[in-house]
Structure formats: structure tokens, C-alpha cells
């Protein structure tokens, strides 16, 4: 991972990341841990998450805490958040990263698929915020970073439930920023472009598709998971003290 600026406020801070075991989430887990934070992350992918912890443990001040949970189960999610607080202290930085961007045709979507998709991609973001809000208030403030996507801004049509959820995250971000701002809790969102995670490369990246995307970007390079770390650190840090209710687009300048 490229060197990141140092943010002293993250040393020993209690940070919670959803979906922190793979892809963008793994880069975020590493990025905050490298700042000296006490990082807990929730993921359903046990093997990859445990491997990540073992890889990072010798290189960071605090061994990351992996919490296995299915975010669709709100009770399990709440327990994982409680366990994170017990392990690391009251959470003052929350990163809502977890998502599942499966493609789906309009004709094949039924009620169960729709509800399940939003139960992964939108509903947990609210309930994680709900679960950490009181602790942040008691701590005197905090920062929440929600991951949305540029997909709904680009009229991408082959994942309508996903793009609906990602648009909803923007509304949730703004609403929660208004509600929690008086308690010195900032709520922002990051909208990545097409990030070259292993999942994307395995399932959807083609040479032609990637070349077309890069041609539309101002910066003519592939976007890597590590490229989301700097924006997230900034929005969670004191450098963004008066930044809230915003969406930071990190797409190499395509939009």
C-alpha cells in the first residue's frame, strides 16, 4: 500500500469497518490499522478475514479484531458492534463499506431477491449508525463514512436493486448528518469508480471494458482498492472537521 499521510488522532482510536475482510474493505482495515487505530471489522468471509488479520498483525500496533457476522441479521450485527466496543472502546469512527454488487435483470427480480439485496446493501448502514451513535455522543463526537457508488450516477442498468440501495445511501448520509451534527458527529459518503478488486477482476472486468472506462477517466490509470484509503482517512479525520453531509467522488475524474 502506498504511504498515506499520518493522522495522529487515529492512534488508539476505536474504528469499526463493515465488510473489512476483502476488497476495498481489506484496504481500509489495513489503512486504519497502519495509523495505529484499534480496528474491528465485520465480515461474512471468515477465511479471507482471518488471513488478513494474520498478515497485518506483525506490522501494526494493534492486532485487528475480526467479527464474523451476516449483516442481514440485525441482531447479529448489533452483537458484533457491541463486541467491537468491548474490545476496543467506544467506536468513534464507523466505515460502512460492506456491499454486494451482483448483476441482475429486471425480469428475474422477485420480492425475495429485492428484499435480500437491500438487506445487504442499504439496511445495515442505518442499523450500524444507530448502534454506534450513542457511544459517539458520549465520546463528544465521531465520524461516519458510508460507501455509496458512482453506478447509480452513471445510469448503469444491470443491477437496479444495487443502484437503488447506493442512491439511498446518499439520502441516509444527508439525513444522519443533519440529525447527528449537533452532537459533533460528521456523516459523509465516498462514491468510488470502478475499483479493481479481485472480485471485479474475476467476475466482470474485460480488457475492452476496462480500457473504455480508463479512457473516460481524467487520470488514465486503474483504480485500486488502496486508492479509497486516503479519501476515507481524510473524511474520518480532524482535517475534515467542518465537512459533513457530502459525497466525495473518487473515480479518477470520470464524472
Q: What's the β-strand tally? A: 7
Give the integer mean of the pLDDT values.
97
In one word, what is the shape? Answer: globular
Biggest sheet details: 7 strands, parallel
Q: Which oligomeric state applies?
A: single chain
Unreliable spans: none
Percent of residues in beta strands? 5-15%
Q: What is the count of structural domains?
A: 1
Count of helix runs: 9
What CATH architecture label applies? Answer: 3-Layer(aba) Sandwich
Q: How many whole angstroms does the radius of gyration measure? A: 17 Å
Keywords: Oxidoreductase
Family: Belongs to the short-chain dehydrogenases/reductases (SDR) family.
GO molecular function: oxidoreductase activity
Pfam family, one: adh_short_C2
Could you provide a short overview of the structure?
The protein has helices at residues 23-34, 46-56, 74-88, 111-121, 123-139, 160-180, 198-203, 207-216, 229-236, and strands at residues 14-18, 38-43, 65-68, 93-96, 142-147, 185-192, 247-250. The protein is an alpha/beta fold.
Give structural notes.
- By secondary structure, the chain is an alpha/beta fold.
- The protein has a single domain (9-250), classed as Rossmann fold (3-Layer(aba) Sandwich).
- Helices cover 44% and strands 15% of the residues.
- The chain contains 9 helices and 7 strands.
- It has helices spanning 23-34, 46-56, 74-88, 111-121, 123-139, 160-180, 198-203, 207-216, 229-236, and strands spanning 14-18, 38-43, 65-68, 93-96, 142-147, 185-192, 247-250.
- It has a 7-stranded parallel sheet, with helices on both faces.
- β1, α1 and β2 (38-43) form a beta-alpha-beta unit.
- α5 (123-139) runs parallel beside α6.
- The chain is globular and about 45 Å long.
- The chain starts with 13 loop residues before the first strand and ends in a 5-residue tail after the last strand.
- The model has no long low-confidence stretch (mean pLDDT 97).
- It comes from Oricola thermophila.
- GO terms for molecular function: oxidoreductase activity.
- InterPro entries: KR_dom (IPR057326), NAD(P)-bd_dom_sf (IPR036291), Sc_DH/Rdtase_CS (IPR020904), SDR_fam (IPR002347).
Amino acid at each position: 500500500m502506498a504511504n498515506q499521510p499520518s493522522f495522529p488522532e487515529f492512534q488508539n482510536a476505536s474504528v469499526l469497518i463493515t465488510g473489512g475482510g476483502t476488497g476495498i474493505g481489506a484496504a481500509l482495515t489495513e489503512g486504519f490499522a497502519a495509523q495505529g487505530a484499534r480496528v474491528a471489522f465485520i465480515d461474512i468471509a471468515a477465511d479471507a478475514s482471518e488471513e488478513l488479520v494474520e498478515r497485518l498483525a506483525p506490522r501494526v500496533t494493534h492486532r485487528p479484531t475480526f467479527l464474523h457476522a451476516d449483516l442481514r441479521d440485525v441482531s447479529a450485527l448489533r452483537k458484533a458492534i457491541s463486541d467491537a466496543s468491548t474490545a476496543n472502546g467506544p467506536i468513534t469512527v464507523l466505515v460502512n463499506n460492506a456491499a454486494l454488487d451482483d448483476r441482475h435483470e429486471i425480469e428475474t427480480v422477485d420480492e425475495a431477491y429485492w428484499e435480500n439485496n437491500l438487506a445487504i446493501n442499504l439496511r445495515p448502514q442505518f442499523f450500524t449508525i444507530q448502534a454506534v451513535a450513542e457511544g459517539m455522543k458520549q465520546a463528544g463526537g465521531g465520524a461516519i463514512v458510508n460507501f455509496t457508488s458512482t453506478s447509480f450516477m452513471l445510469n448503469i442498468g444491470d443491477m437496479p436493486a444495487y443502484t437503488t440501495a447506493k442512491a439511498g445511501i446518499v439520502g441516509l448520509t444527508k439525513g444522519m448528518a443533519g440529525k447527528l451534527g449537533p452532537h459533533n458527529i460528521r456523516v459523509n459518503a465516498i462514491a468510488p469508480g470502478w475499483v479493481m478488486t479481485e472480485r471485479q477482476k474475476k467476475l466482470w472486468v474485460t480488457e475492452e471494458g476496462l480500457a473504455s472506462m480508463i479512457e473516460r477517466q481524467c487520470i488514465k490509470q486503474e483504480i485500486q482498492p488502496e486508492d479509497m484509503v486516503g479519501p476515507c482517512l481524510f473524511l474520518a479525520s480532524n482535517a475534515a472537521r467542518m465537512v459533513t453531509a457530502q459525497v466525495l467522488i473518487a473515480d479518477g475524474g470520470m464524472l
